[in-house]
Amino acid sequence: MTGAEDPFWTDLIAAGVGMLAAVALSLGLLVLLVSLPYVGVRALAVLWRREWIPLVYNLRSLGRRRLMTLTTALVLAVVVFVLTAVLMLALGIEHTLASTGNPRNVKLIDENALSEWTSWVDSEQLPALGTLPGLARDPAGNPLLSPEMVVLIWAPRQGAVDADDGANLSVRGVQPVAFEVHPTRGLRGARFQPGTNQIVIGKALVGRFAGAELGGSMSFADRDWRVVGVLDHGGTAHDSEIWGDVEVMAPTFRRGYSTVTLTLDERADVVAVSAALGQNPDLSRLLAKREVEYWRALSENYVGFVRLLGSVVTVIFSFGAILGALNTMYAQVAARTREIGTLRAIGFKPRAVLTSLLAESVLLALAAGSVGVLAASLLGRMTFQLTTVQTLSEITYGFHLSPVLALGCLGFAGLMGYAGGLLPAWRASRLPIVEAVRAN
């Protein structure tokens, strides 16, 4: 075995390359940070003394080398598109799960359970739970308390020819009160009738799985279940669930309650509920979490991973984009050396040349970045399905673009333009006037 094939040397070389890349990135960021105050002060001086070079001149200069300018803009746009798309994906996952639930709802699960899929609540605890402080009540005076059974099933996809072509779905056995505790935006068809094999499905399941349509029939747990309604939960995780009567589903799946969801009145607090649970020995093993916080926690690890992966890919791509901007601006400076010398000769200060060329590079990057963000915004009409370790079942998500995200990606584009234009602009501002005027 040669040294190059030795795992030790391979790992050592890889570690060395990674360290060099990290050092180069750190030095690059340090240069940018150090240069910002310097450039900012000179830019303010240019504005204050009205020494700016006309913007039309800069834009006209970019048009002289259209192929190079368009190539650089395309690379910048692709980088911003990738960054925006990845962050939209992460934000879509976070938005779907974090928006699931009612801010006034509290979810009770076993203190040793990681999620409601592995939790268990004894039915004998329900009367005591109905006496917890701060519970909201319906017009009849009944507490808004929804005991629920949650299990996973394997559902074949629509038109599947292979038994392995399917996905895990969440089945939630509920009582009629669940429709009050978990308000929906709309319902096509009807609610299930208690004591029957009727089910309602979330709108995200329609047409994707065998029988998942209004009037269809889905088979699981050795029984056929008739779909009588399609629920619209407003794009939350519940849109990817199947709901049925818990009194029928519990014996079918040989499973008891998994969780209990409570709706509190406007003055109640989850802290008071937790304190009441701790004071009752029969309820002390139950953990109270706000429903929105429970679902948000399920997204944290995966969203963090997606953002980290997207950041690494974007950093790698951005090096190419910055080099493209650097090459374009050096070519612009080389082609305009005589013009720059003339500007200096008629009285423009080095700071005006520096600010002008940097503005040109940043404007090019912002224009390209706007194209990248606009292209990524088209993904907002798309949905994707994902099964994670946290959710265990397939959930439909959408790409989500927020104003803050769009502005942040545009800011990143501007930063790439600044990084690519800094050295050429600095060189141009330091050209000797005589040599620049005599340049060919």
What number of structural domains do the residues give? 2
The mean pLDDT is 82
Largest beta sheet, briefly? 10 strands, mixed
Distance from first to last alpha carbon: 58 Å
Coarse shape: elongated
Any low-confidence stretches, pLDDT <50, length ≥5? Answer: 1-5
Percentage of β-strand residues:
15-25%
Report the order of strands and helices. Answer: HHHEHEEHEEEEEHEHEHHHEEHH
Count of separate DSSP helical elements = 12
Assembly context of the chains: single chain
- Pairing-aware structural class of the strands and helices? alpha+beta
Protein architecture, described:
With 440 residues, the chain is an alpha+beta fold. The protein has 2 domains: 35-98 and 299-438, no CATH class; 113-284, no CATH class. Helix content is 51%, strand content 17%. The strands form 2 sheets. Strands 1, 2, 3, 4, 5, 6, 7, 8, 9 and 10 form a 10-stranded mixed beta sheet that branches. Strands 11-12 form a two-stranded antiparallel ribbon. Strand 6 and strand 7 (223-232) form a beta hairpin. Helix 1 crosses helix 10, helix 2 crosses helix 10 and helix 3 packs antiparallel against helix 11 (403-429). The two termini are 58 Å apart.
Element layout with pairings:
Layout: H1 7-48, H2 55-62, H3 66-98, E1 105-110, H4 126-129, E2 145-156, E3 166-174, H5 178-181, E4 186-189, E5 198-202, E6 217-220, E7 223-232, E8 241-245, H6 246-253, E9 259-263, H7 270-279, E10 286-290, H8 291-335, H9 337-345, H10 350-377, E11 383-387, E12 394-398, H11 403-429, H12 433-438
Parallel strand pairs: 3-8, 5-7
Antiparallel strand pairs: 1-9, 1-10, 2-3, 2-9, 4-7, 5-8, 6-7, 11-12
Helix pairs in contact: 1-10, 2-10, 3-8, 3-10, 3-11, 8-11, 10-11
